[in-house]
Amino acid sequence: MSRTRFVLIQPSHAGNVGAAARAMKVMGFDDLVLVQPRWDDVLERDETLERASGATDVLRQARAVDTLDAALSGVSYVMGTVMTPRDFGPPTYAPREHLASVAPTGQGVAFLFGSERYGMRNEDVYRCHAALRIPVSPDYGSLNLAAAIQVIAYEWRQALGGFDLPPVPAPERADAAAVAGMLRHWEQALVDIGFLDPAAPKKLMPRLNQLFNRAQPTPEEIHILRGVAKAMAEAAKKPKP
């Protein structure tokens, strides 16, 4: 039984088929079925391949069928994407809310997407166990087919546990002695340029100390800051014109 299938009903734009394959692949899905596509050779058309942007393996194993029955073979739970809930149709949910409850069941699922021109037909919606409505702006709710597939694929992947991102190595932090040495360098430079009065320093240096402790500079940044202090001191020594 296929774990996850994406079904496009009567897709009319070859580019959307390629973009759908790309959207699926980045979320780790590869079972794509087209029901009565406009083009018999849609899986090999130039626009399809271009928009797939490397997801050609998904296209190679995708298949076109004549009926929705054939597309849903081996699937036990069907969800259709709709903008408007249908009278007498299945209950309508936001994807995140519903998919979190579906994921633990272990069922083979299919997501149905209607034609770009008129969306899903009522008879196709009635075949579904649930309808999914993506929350969008009430002022403009028109989603491109591939964009809708990307949203649903992302939400389903998250419901299944998501992908672990590679750990980001923590940057090396300068040690306390390096920060203290840099601050002494800056203190002298600030005196040299007349910004700091050593007779009345107030709380300037403790404040700078706290600032750099919060910033947690790296050794390279300490080197840059020392270079700035050196340049300030040298500029202060130059005779004024």
Automatic annotation (TrEMBL):
<comment type="similarity">
    <text>Belongs to the class IV-like SAM-binding methyltransferase superfamily. RNA methyltransferase TrmH family.</text>
</comment>
<comment type="subunit">
    <text>Homodimer.</text>
</comment>
<dbReference type="Pfam" id="PF00588">
    <property type="entry name" value="SpoU_methylase"/>
</dbReference>
<keyword id="KW-0819">tRNA processing</keyword>
<keyword id="KW-0808">Transferase</keyword>
<keyword id="KW-0949">S-adenosyl-L-methionine</keyword>
<dbReference type="InterPro" id="IPR029026">
    <property type="entry name" value="tRNA_m1G_MTases_N"/>
</dbReference>
<keyword id="KW-0489">Methyltransferase</keyword>
<feature type="domain" description="tRNA/rRNA methyltransferase SpoU type">
    <location>
        <begin position="5"/>
        <end position="154"/>
    </location>
</feature>
<dbReference type="GO" id="GO:0005829">
    <property type="term" value="C:cytosol"/>
</dbReference>
<dbReference type="GO" id="GO:0002128">
    <property type="term" value="P:tRNA nucleoside ribose methylation"/>
</dbReference>
<dbReference type="InterPro" id="IPR029028">
    <property type="entry name" value="Alpha/beta_knot_MTases"/>
</dbReference>
<comment type="function">
    <text>Catalyzes the formation of 2'O-methylated cytidine (Cm32) or 2'O-methylated uridine (Um32) at position 32 in tRNA.</text>
</comment>
<dbReference type="InterPro" id="IPR004384">
    <property type="entry name" value="RNA_MeTrfase_TrmJ/LasT"/>
</dbReference>
<dbReference type="GO" id="GO:0003723">
    <property type="term" value="F:RNA binding"/>
</dbReference>
<protein>
    <recommendedName>
        <fullName>tRNA (cytidine/uridine-2'-O-)-methyltransferase TrmJ</fullName>
        <ecNumber>2.1.1.200</ecNumber>
    </recommendedName>
</protein>
<keyword id="KW-0963">Cytoplasm</keyword>
<dbReference type="GO" id="GO:0160206">
    <property type="term" value="F:tRNA (cytidine(32)/uridine(32)-2'-O)-methyltransferase activity"/>
</dbReference>
<dbReference type="InterPro" id="IPR001537">
    <property type="entry name" value="SpoU_MeTrfase"/>
</dbReference>
